[in-house]
Amino acid sequence: MKTIKDMKNKRRLRNESINSKKALNKSLEDNVNLFMEFFKDDDTVSVRYFSNREQDMIKFCIIYIDGMVDPETVNRNILQPIIQRTFPKNFYGNMDVVLEQIVIANNAEKLCNVDELVVRILRGESVLLMDKSDEAIAICTKGWKSRSITEPENEKVQRGPKEGFVEPVLVNLSMIRRRLPTPNLKFKKLVIGVQSKTDVYVCYLDNIVNKQILDELLKRLKNISYDGILSTGTLGELIEDAPYSCFDTIGSTERPDTAAALMLTGRIIVLADGSPTALTLPFLFEEYFRSNEDYYINIYFSSISRIIRILSFIITVLAPGLYVAILTFHQEMVPTPLLYSLSAAREGIPFPTILETLGLLFVFEILREAGLRITLQMGQSISILGALVLGTAAVDARIVSAPVIIVVAISGLTGMMTLKIKGASIIIRLIMVLLAGFLGLYGMVFGIMAIVFHLCTLRSFGVPYLLTLTSLKPEMVLDTAIRAPIWFLEKRIRFIAGENRGHIGEKE
After folding, report:
1. Are 196 and 224 in contact (CB under 8 A)?
2. What pLDDT is recorded for position 4?
3. Residue pair 479/489 in contact by the 8 Å Cβ criterion
4. Do the beta carbons of residue 435 and residue 328 sit within 8 Å?
5. Distances in Å between the alpha carbon of 251 and those of 69, 240, 247, 281?
6. At what angle do helices 299-328 and 422-439 cross, to 10 degrees?
7. Could you tell me which of 34, 56, 252, 339 has the fewest CB atoms within 10 Å of its CB?
8. Cβ within 8 Å of residue 162, ≥6 positions away
9. Alpha-carbon distance 492 to 490, whole Å?
């Protein structure tokens, strides 16, 4: 049986083999063969030999991957200048002249390490080799197509910016930089993933961020040893405090304005190349009920909207359980006329209340997932099919009662108000129905107590999860269930921000 030590040694040897240091030599053919060992059986790699038109004894070769580079950039900035340039005598092997006087590129670097050059090729750069030289030039010629900047589907607003993050991480960094044009804005780059070599950027405001949280984040990121980091979702799962909890301890956003606003409160943003979603941390429980539009509309309306979201979360997780508990154990709590109506509606139903409720909740989740996975037009058809055909047919066939359909519909509708906490809502709702079916209201009370205790134990990078809901300090509670005016939010949260805690009148 393999021990942990053996697994670590195996991983270390694998990483050493991947990161082996191979150097170039002065033979052009040998250097090209060295690269082709890495790209064996890869037909997308292009190798182009060429020479100067006046001094054809000076041989060059350029290596790049089709589809990753812009052919016009390669022709205009590399091939054309070298072919048409008049080289000085005794030029053999002098790559500095090519780098400083011939190649036309803003981003070009001279390298000797083959492994680093291979990574540059895989990232869309072109590598220029020359005979009689043991050096190469990595030239930025990236030119793949990417999605245009559009408004995020999951975070739409009626007022406010319509920009959302896209897959190229440098475009995302530029959108943040445009909103925070200050030298205090810092971007730390890490390359994570043994195979994927993903560029990950940690973004923060140096004069506001809590350095202890920043150091802890960088430590966790550097300790990641995983083959492929293809999205920030994978990254978040590897660094969050409570990966087995149904509650998120790391937030996410697809909006650059939201990311900039969070950094102004002392939070840290993590972006990964290829992912349009940014991670935000630390993340607190009350952030589930915030909306991007809260800060673009009237304070009274935004406060009412937050209260409605909180009440919607309570209704969506407790309504089915209350229905099951009352009809199963606590009929005396229901007024007599209503009890007669419920009894008449349930007459002839073959299933107990708990099975009836669980079955409808399961059907509702199937319809919801089906609506998400198919096209918009088909999604509307699925909604009509579920609401009219299945619901009406089930009641007419006396398989389920009409009241339970109303309860499940209300629970599902209120769940749509708090999509950020959708996963936790589904799990808690199921637990409450099971506890109510076996223990009644007492079971629901025990379940609520267990959830509250669990929330009290959670931390997000050392910050208590319920920090803003259990404090009486004004700066903690003025932007939770209600949104106070901006001029009242003078202080940042102590545990999240660093020493600079002032919002208003702050000087750099």
Report:
1. no
2. 43
3. yes
4. no
5. 34, 10, 10, 6
6. 30
7. 56
8. 150, 151
9. 7
Tokens 């047919």 -> residue: 393
Copy the structure tokens of residue 175. 């959108």
| Best CA proximity match to 465, nearest among 313, 260, 287 | 287
Q: At a CB cut-off of 8 Å and minimum separation 6, what does 355 contact?
A: none
pLDDT < 50 positions in the chain: 1-5, 7-8, 11-20, 507-508
Q: What is the largest CA-CA distance in the chain?
A: 106
Whole-Å CA distances, 86 to 81, 91, 92: 9, 11, 13
Handedness of CA 501, 190, 257, 482 (dihedral sign): negative
C-alpha–C-alpha distance, residues 300 and 53, integer Å: 74
What is the spatial distance between Cα 119 and Cα 61, in angstroms, rounded to a whole number?
Answer: 18
CA 207, 212, 218, 221 torsion-angle sign: negative
Q: Are 289 and 418 in contact (CB under 8 A)?
A: yes
Name the CA dihedral angle for 411, 414, 418, 421, rounded to a multiple of 10 degrees: -10
Say whether 371 sits in a helix, a strand or coil.
Answer: helix
The answer to whether 24 and 134 are in contact (CB under 8 A) is: yes
- Burial of 3: CB neighbours in 10 Å, binned 0-12, 13-18, 19+: exposed
Q: Tokens 């750099």 correspond to what residue?
A: 508
pLDDT of residue 503: 56
- Strand 198-205 to 268-272 pairing: antiparallel
Report which secondary-structure segment, H or E, holds 64. Answer: strand 59-65
What is the sign, positive or negative, of the torsion defined by CA atoms of 281, 150, 68, 38?
positive
Residue 483 DSSP symbol:
B
CA triplet 155, 463, 247: central angle to 5 degrees?
50
Task: Evaluate whether 158 touches 301 at the Cβ level (below 8 Å).
Answer: no
Radius of gyration of the chain (CA): 30
What is the structure's pLDDT at 7? 46
- How far is residue 498's CA from residue 433's CA, in Å, rounded to a whole number? 43
Two tokens at 25? 């030599």
| pTM score | 0.79
Q: Give the model confidence (pLDDT) of 273-313 as tens digits.
A: 888 889 998 998 888 888 877 778 888 888 888 888 889 99
The residue type of 274 is G
The candidate with the shortest Cα–Cα distance to 400, out of 387, 411, 409, 391, is 391
For residue 114, the model assigns a pLDDT of 84
Q: Got the DSSP string for 67-108?
A: TTB-HHHHIIIIIHHHHH--PPSS-TT-HHHIIIII---SSE
Give residue 449's pLDDT: 93
Quote the CA–CA distance of 252 and 464 in Å, as a whole number: 18
Closest CA to 199 of 94, 292, 274, 107: 274
Question: Among 48, 108, 103, which Cα is nearest to 76's?
Answer: 103
Could you give the C-alpha distances from 139 to 120, 173, 233, in angstroms and in order? Answer: 9, 21, 31
